[in-house]
Amino acid sequence: MFTPWVEYLVAVALTLVVLYFLGWATTQVLGRRLLVWFESLLDRVPLVKTIYGGIKIFLVAFQTKPDGVERVVLIDFPSPEMKTIGLVTRTMIDEASGEELAVVYVPTSPNPTSGFIQIMSLAKVISTNWTLNEAMQFLLTAGTQAPDTITFARNVDAREKPPPAPE
Predict the structure, then answer these.
(1) How far apart are CA 79 and CA 96, in angstroms?
(2) Neighbouring-strand partners of residue 93
(3) How far apart, in whole angstroms, are the C-alpha atoms of residue 76 and residue 104?
(4) By the 8 A CB rule, do 72 and 87 touch?
């Protein structure tokens, strides 16, 4: 009915489709079962359970970015001349003033699962161009691994040179 090369082409295409769906089904079913088994195994080890559970919750919380706000920011800490990395977890509105506030998680180095929360004016945070992965790498390595640039000054165009200091 068909020429041999057409039959061969159809057979190869059908084989690839069947293999793809078989791989997908295996990943969905077997992969999930393996993950559940592995997590239940980790839940039995006291110290590992605490660390793994905390990291898992922490990472799930940072899967989505708050609307209109960059995730990785700098905030003034411990003084206006010094900055620290913060992660915006959400934004809020001040009832009294209507001002937009940022909830900023300030992780500690080298263990970013511990840290503290700052609620501050969104106008006081400095957005960075760092990804969450870059910020985590920076924190885990105590600052030894980082992108070459960061936005340090608030509301300054990096292309403009600051005025010379008075003499």
Answers:
(1) 27
(2) 100
(3) 12
(4) yes
